[in-house]
Amino acid sequence: MDIFDNSDLEYLVDEFHADFDDDEPFGEVDITSDSDSDFMDSDFDFELSQSKTNNDTSALEARNGKDIQGIPWESMNYTRDRYRENRLLHYKNFESLFRSREELYKDCLQVEKGKNFYDFQFNTRLVKSTIAHFQLLCLIIESATANSWPLIKPEFSSWESSWRLKETFVNMLRNLVWATSKHDVYFMNNYSLMHWSSLLQRGKEVLNVAKPIVPTMKQHGSLSQSVSRVQISTMAVKDDLIVAGGFQGELICKRINEPEVAFCTKLTSAENDITNSVDIYNAPSGSLRVMAANNDCTVRLFDATKFALLNSFAFDWSVNNISISPDGKLVAVLGDSPECLLADTGSGKVIHGLEGHLDYSFSSAWHPNGQILATGNQDTTCRLWDVRNLSQSLKVLKGNMGAIRALRFTSDGRFLAMAEPADFVHLFDTEAGYTQCQEIDLFGEIAGISFSPDTEALFVGVADRTYGSLLEFNRKRNHSYVDSIF
């Protein structure tokens, strides 16, 4: 897991507050609990806050000119275009391996942008997606001069003696949003795993991970143990099972319709051995499996019925991401190495190494046909691999400014979504050979992306202190109607 200095990517609220005297210039509503912990009360109903905020944005409002995130650019001292220009200019992508990118960029596919595969549908700020950054070093103080902060109002340029507090974080993976239907989404809000119904515009806490969690399934020889105050680092949802990993190596497994947690444990006792990635899949035998990858260079395989540990595979570097092929036979293993690996899910035996990336890798996704694997890297590219010929990648897709942190194919294989750490989600048309792209341009860190299983909806979680929200897009259909003659 790499370390990322977040000082150059300021939350929007910090820069916007420089233009206003009041503490909450945009009607921000704090919907978190006032208790000692940072989670919502389990009985909290998002509808109760609806009367307190008018910051949601509908498709009609967006068509009439309102910013999809509700950012009041007309009140700013700079335009959206100027803010975007400066954001692109000053964003610094973290590099673990310092290698020339010139040849890499020459290999990137030329893409036609401006397409519209998914229409903006709704944005709600009642949903506060959050990313629990693991703080490695705090209170790094830097001087804030006019050159350092080009978007602050001119009159603030005299504050050359002012200071800002900075933090250095682990740059987390972004798999904290999962859709189980076009109306049902699961996401993290501080210490609460929440369910949101876009149809009812209501949310409900599914799991509180701040309180002590006592697993209901305890068997002789089981790894099951209680955990508490878990900072969720990754999650996955499949069928009726939710699996989440934590910063201290925790693994939590819960059935959606059951109130208690079935299984939880600490996969490693070593400090800071984060559970970086989890996946739920059907083995070739048909049985449900859970796989987890950790910073301790180990991938662990569990049965999803009794949650017995079936196997563990050790690698030479920290494993940042795993994804299982649709047939359940292969696992893509990515981590603190420019090489990605394909391994057997049952034995962990490495079948092939994938070479081409220049830095550490953080995301992957399989096309539903099982033949194409997409891998996302800190070198700001996604590579596409054909498992029938792994000598080199098929195509190289490039982001705008940061590492590729999340990848998702639609269930029909038509589109590939590629998310950067902040600001950009790219949608590629696979039937056009990935040469046509829709670019979703927003502001804020991206907590996760997820297509609904029927491909009709795309959800994007935005983590920001003021503009944290859930963006919803609907698949654009070109319906043809034939007149009926009676």
From TrEMBL:
Spans of repeat WD: 354-395
Keyword terms of this UniProt record: Repeat, WD repeat
PROSITE patterns: WD_REPEATS_1, WD_REPEATS_2, WD_REPEATS_REGION
Pfam families: WD40
InterPro entries recorded: WD40/YVTN_repeat-like_dom_sf, WD40_repeat_CS, WD40_repeat_dom_sf, WD40_rpt
Entry-linked PANTHER family: WD REPEAT PROTEIN (AFU_ORTHOLOGUE AFUA_8G05640), WD REPEAT PROTEIN (AFU_ORTHOLOGUE AFUA_8G05640)-RELATED
Name listed for the protein in its UniProt record: Transducin/WD40 repeat-like superfamily protein
UniProt lineage: Eukaryota, Viridiplantae, Streptophyta, Embryophyta, Tracheophyta
